[in-house]
Every structure is written in C-alpha cells, then in structure tokens.
Amino acid sequence: MLELSNNNELPVIPAKRYFTIGEVSDLCAVKPHVLRYWEQEFSQLKPIKRRGNRRYYQRQDVLLIRQIRGLLYEEGFTIGGAKQRLGEAEETEPQNQRMIRELRVELEHILAILAA
Fold this sequence. Notes:
Blueprint: E1 19-20, H1 21-28, H2 32-41, E2 48-50, E3 54-57, H3 59-74, H4 79-115
C-alpha cells in the first residue's frame, strides 16, 4: 500500500463496518461531491449502494480515499497520475503471486528429481 504521508492530521477511523458519505467526508476532509466524482474516476473505489442509492463505504474505501487525497492534494498528482500510481500498486501483487507460483512449480520439479 502507498504511504499515507500527511494524513496524520486526519481523524482516526472508528471501528465501524460501514460509513455514510457524510462520515467519510469528515474522516477524509473531502467534500461529498468530490467523493462522488472520485467514484467515477477511480475504478477501485466502489462503495456499497443500498436503498435509495445511498452509499456505504467500508474501511478499505476510507483508506483508499485517504490515499487518493494524499496523492492529489499533498503530492500534487493529477487525476491521471494518481490513477497510474494506484494502478502500479495493484499490478505488483498479481506479479508477485505469479512469481511465487512459478517458484513453487520449480521446487516441486526439483523435489521430484531428488525423490527419484
């Protein structure tokens, strides 16, 4: 995950399962209309929508919003740059999993040779 540099002055995220858009707005120091815009721009940000199209964010959504906020407001990234930066963080995990899978296949092959 990316560093949450200057997000230290933001309030602590309470131990709750779901947060309303107003609560997230307060927790992340971002206006609700900005949150709705970011939902359109960042595919990773997907709050649960319930009756009446009300949004409910989970803890990982709040953390992602704080990351986006840090990239845009504190580090000076553009929306495109922030998307790219967040995309890089997502791409490394599947690459690591692929490497582990390949290593496991190699080790199993070596084990079969040693067992023979």
